[in-house]
Amino acid sequence: MESGTGLGSTRTLPYCVAFSQLLGLSVVAMTGAWLGLYRGGIAWENTMQFNVHPLCMIIGLIFLQGDALLVYRVFRKETKRTTKVLHGLLHVFAFIIALVGLVAVFDYHRKMNYADLYSLHSWCGILVFVLYFVQWLVGFSFFLFPGASFSLRSRYRPQHIFLGATIFLLSVGTALLGLKEALLLKLGTTYSTFEPEGIVANVLGLLLACFGVAVLYILAQTDWKRPPQAEEQALSMDFKTLTEGDSPSSQ
To answer: Phi and psi dihedrals of 76, rounded to 5?
Structure first.
């Protein structure tokens, strides 16, 4: 039975989700405004090619990844398989967009003869990207591909949830590192004089942090977890019996 009182009740869930989406869209819009106003816009040529990187990473590894994590909180009444597919597809879109951003920055560095992978931001970025890909691959193998046993899925599910939240948190932190690095490389000592670009980017950083906190807060509320449907529980017991030979009556 769903709770009806308190901050963690499902009554406040739609408002918190809507607030998180407002923050997420503001992050994307503010990123576009920053790149358009102070970095020349976005194109696959000249210095503007670099700008593809932050925009794609923000859309993919921040906004879409955050929304993918919220799928199981938002679609509480949909079938489990529908929710799984939507969760997986959002992660696929996020990965593809992030891959475009990664190719853009490496290609730009090659053209400009810049060094690769020397900064803390780049190290964290590669780590996040690899972890994200491995997490999706393992999650697909366990939860969408019909080969994993019931007990194996049950044992891995807590780790999958924890790693998903951790990778999202690392993505936000890496984006903040990259934002600070981009400002220091361009503005240098004038950053401390409250340059307009610095102020806009600082606001973007605050919005990034707020979006990350909003998503993690929603995920942390136990009352907002998707309740299993009766037919799903029956199917789970049948699947357990088929894959492991256990009797439903033994549970």
So the answer is: -80, -20
List of residues 6+ apart from 118 with CB closer than 8 A? none
The pTM for the full model equals 0.87
- Local structure of residue 229 (DSSP, 8 states): P
Q: How do residues 172-200 score in pLDDT, each as one tens digit? A: 999 999 999 999 999 999 999 999 999 99
- Residues 215, 62: contact at Cβ < 8 Å? no
The DSSP secondary structure of 80-114, one letter per residue, reads HHHHHHHHHHHHHHHHHHHHHHHHHHHHHHHHHT-
DSSP 8-state assignment for residue 214: H
CA atoms within 13 A on the CB side of 93: 15
54 by Cβ neighbours in 10 Å (0-12 / 13-18 / 19+) ranks as buried
Share of the chain above pLDDT 90, in %: 73
Sign of CA dihedral 118, 178, 57, 197: negative
Contact by Cβ (8 Å): 174, 125: yes
Residue carrying the six token digits 């999202």 = 168
Tell me the three state secondary structure of residue 148.
coil
Nearest Cα to 205, choosing from 62, 41, 91? 62
Q: Which two tokens mark 179?
A: 């934002």
How far CA 126 is from CA of 58, 104, 109, 120, 139, in Å, comes to 15, 14, 15, 10, 20
Answer yes or no: are the C-beta atoms of 216 and 168 closer than 8 Å: yes
